[in-house]
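Re: that chain you flagged

S.,

Sorry for the slow reply, it's been a week of failed gels. I finally had a moment to sit down with the sequence you sent. For the record, here it is as I used it:
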Amino acid sequence: MRIGPLELASPLLLAPIAGHCDLAFRILCREQGGVGLACTDLLNCHAVLRQSRRTLELAATNGLDQPCGMQLYGNANDPLPEAAVWAIDHGASLIDINMGCPVDKVAKKHGGSLLLCDIDSTVRLAAGIVDAVSRHSGNRVPVTAKLRIGWDAEHRVAPALARALERVGIAAVTVHGRYTVQLFSGKADWNAIGEVVAAVDKIPVIGNGDVTLPEHAAELMSSTGCSGVMIGRAALREPWLFRRALRVIRSGDAGAEPTLLEKLRVILRHLDLLNRYSDEHHAVDTMRKRISWYGKSMLHVKSLKESIRLATDTNAMRAALLERVEAEASGVDLIDR
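Prediction finished late last night. Pasting the structure tokens below so you have them in one place:
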């Protein structure tokens, strides 16, 4: 899939999952295969320009994390063009404007889904960002937008907004098939994604929402005509989902699901990446939270999950994981321990 000047090796994208999409996790998903583009957590444009410590951590990228999209949020009164220029200088291969975040602290004050409520203002904002990025990058870095289908059912604006955004130079749009008021409840409306595909002229539309199985990505592309698929929460429990989904798209067969041993080794790799790219506190806190997500894809790992949750440092976590890896590799049953 091509987004403006940027060619992706896969039409599958890792979503900018707020609170979860740090550098370690993006690299982990890339290592599993099938990821065409991964995006940072959403970045506040003011915090970017202040270079706050936390924002610099969220925006961190390196050669193992390319191509990398940086997602910015703000509104027409905020310095989004300047933040986009900063992002280019700090490793962004693509700038994404968040027009879909439903969380109150974003959507009701600073941007996100708020941008769905005033199309004219939002299109002018997008035009300014595109102009700044084009000039600074020499037309090398595309600008995209991630939106929802509208604030609510009475304001189904995504087709008209996507069409207007294309006219001012937005290179692609990602559409999450829910209204803002739904948050993440209910079922994603894939038909609405198809309406956006029909509304634009040439730019790719990327579908997002309820892609939880490898087959879903191909089904979403087939049913809507979208050019790519963005996967979010399902990747938290199965970072290997992209590899299997790409196999379905290319051959119709997802291949075998990873074994329990393979999954345990992925978790161990995640812990190692957290140690490499974050401090001890963040690594421990992240793994305590994420082991529950990983557990959703594995049976009979209650004791392991408890060991991880109760661990006070990454050494203890690694020891618990290695014990289970070694037991699984040798066929020893640790289910009840």
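What I noticed first: The chain has 15 helices and eleven strands.

Talk soon,
D.
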